[in-house]
Write a structure and sequence with these properties.
Layout (H helix, E strand, L loop, with lengths): L8 H19 L3 H17 L1 H12 L3 H24 L6 E3 L13 E7 L3 E4 L13 H9 L3 E4 L5 H17 L7 E4 L2 H9 L5 E5 L2 H13 L6 E4 L6 E3 L1 H20 L11 E5 L5 H9 L9 H15 L5 E4 L10 E6 H6 L1 H4 L7 E7 L2 H8 L5 E7 L5 H12 L2 E6 L38 E7 L21 E3 L3
Helix pairs in contact: 2-4, 2-6, 3-4, 3-6, 4-5, 9-10, 14-15
Length: about 475
């Protein structure tokens, strides 16, 4: 099979220039116009599912069922953003009329609205060939915001990336989007060069801590730094209180194994550690459930090799014991380890680092105070989970207050794998989970990353953007503050 070449410098220059030239026209379209274009992309991807899913299967080792569901999620979120555009409230249009009698002195006419930041560079992820890749949430939210997108494809699925990009480009063109709104580029150095280019006004990334941090540093070291919204790494700790273990310990053990081993542990929300009271008595259940999970090939050989190296390093830490050791010869089977809080805290560098793959650690705590100290040891995470009963109320409250400061999503009596595409979802967290905990990469609030506020003072109606005019031609929500 012919290898797909990296984007040449000349091709990258063309993509960046066309994106820059398209920015004003694309960003000034009405939300209703852009909603129609975003829906056209979703329709085109759905229509091409019979072609795209087999391509993804060939390049990712993921199953047809998993990929079909993921493509459905991808087009769902595109349509969800189209609904945001239909509503128009995302622009946060505010009109504050002039007031000569304002208590602090005469106040001018002030009008504030959010505008697109300009061309956005998106780095696709490996573990979701659709939902976090070419047509994923970063692309969907940037296009919805009115920003042209230059998409740096992931090397794990280049053919799928190119074909998906062709479908998106055609759908945008046929629905009337300005020429140059979307481009797919390939190559490691290509992404770094694009990130340094002054025509790129923001970037989004999903991947590892080392790669994400390197790109984040580039974005911030430019002569004009730009926002870099990176999702890097997360351990997603789970704490089970004593009352919960007494009431439903076996159920918690089975749910945990399902969560950490699903999709071969290649999810950013995989629970990396489960904290149990020292007398939990669930070792046998945990081991049996882990051994019962079938081996699954990882996305590619590079990730498989990285997993094997990290697994060996964690397993060799003194005080860490193997509960179930999965094979890595023909596919990758789950590996489950156990240790105690004292060992964890003494080996933070080795044990409090994400393992991408089906490995997790059960950590026993001898007292509630020890569990609280363990919770305080974590850096930022996407999620933190607590299993508790009414009898655990005081302990649960003390853990929630600690975990809230270290995670973007708190779960109660559930599992972190599975991220709903919803207006209330926050998929982000303190560093190193993400580079800016204030923003999400999943859900409708993801559009906020690619907008910036502008206030117009005493600007004549004819020169105001449509979103701020008194006649409100776009018919969007306007918050109006008129003088009393």
């Amino acid at each position: 099979m012919t290898e797909i070449p990296d984007t040449t410098p000349a091709e990258l220059e063309t993509a960046l220039q066309r994106a820059a030239e398209a920015a004003e026209a694309f960003g000034s379209q009405s939300p209703a116009t852009r909603a129609r274009q975003v829906r056209a992309v979703a329709d085109a991807l759905d229509a091409a599912s019979g072609e795209l899913v087999p391509l993804a299967m060939a390049e990712s080792n993921l199953s047809e069922g998993r990929l079909t569901g993921e493509l459905k999620r991808t087009t769902f979120q595109l349509r969800l953003f189209a609904g945001v555009l239909d509503d128009g409230g995302y622009l946060q249009a505010a009109v504050d009329g002039a007031d000569p009698d304002f208590p602090l002195g005469a106040k001018p006419d002030l009008r504030r609205v959010l505008v697109p930041v300009g061309p956005v560079l998106v780095f696709a992820a490996s573990n979701f060939p659709f939902a976090f890749s070419v047509a994923g949430g970063d692309t969907a939210s940037a296009l919805a915001a009115g920003c042209p997108v230059v998409l740096k494809a992931h090397p794990g699925h280049p053919r799928l990336s190119v074909r998906t990009g062709e479908i998106i480009t055609a759908a945008l063109a046929e629905s009337g989007a300005p020429d140059g709104v979307f481009h797919v580029v390939l190559g490691l150095e290509t992404g770094a060069v694009a990130l340094r280019d002054p025509r790129v006004k923001a970037a989004a990334f999903t991947g590892s801590v080392p790669a994400g941090r390197a790109l984040f540093d580039i974005a911030n070291s430019r002569p004009t730094p730009i926002p870099f919204f990176g999702e890097l790494g997360s351990l997603n700790p789970v704490f089970a209180a004593p009352g919960a273990i007494r009431a439903r310990g076996a159920e918690i053990a089975k749910g945990y194994v399902t969560s950490y081993s699903g999709n071969a542990g290649q999810l950013c929300t995989k629970p990396g550690l489960l904290f149990l009271p020292a007398d939990h008595g669930l070792d046998e259940v945990l081991a049996e459930e882990s051994r019962a999970v079938a081996a699954h090939k990882m996305l590619n050989e590079r990730l498989h090799e990285g997993y094997c190296n990290r697994r060996a390093a964690v397993t060799e830490v003194p005080g860490v014991r193997v509960l179930a050791e999965g094979s890595t010869d023909d596919g990758t089977a789950p590996t489950l380890l156990t240790t105690d809080v004292a060992t964890l805290l003494a080996n933070r560098e080795a044990l409090l680092e994400e393992v991408f793959g089906p490995l997790s650690i059960v950590v026993t705590y001898a007292s509630e105070d020890e569990a609280r100290r363990a919770a305080e040891a974590f850096e930022g995470n996407l999620t933190a989970t607590l299993h508790a009963e009414d009898s655990d109320a005081e302990f649960a409250a003390s853990l929630v207050s600690r975990l809230r400061d270290r995670a973007g999503r708190l779960l109660f009596n559930g599992w972190p794998t599975g991220v709903a595409v919803s207006p209330a979802m926050h998929h982000g967290g303190p560093y190193p989970a993400t580079t800016d905990a204030r923003f999400t990469s999943v859900g409708t609030a993801a559009i906020d990353r690619f907008l910036r506020p502008v206030t117009y003072q005493n600007v004549p109606q004819a020169l105001l953007p449509e979103a701020l005019r008194d006649e409100n031609p776009w018919g969007i929500p306007q918050t109006r503050h008129e003088p009393a």
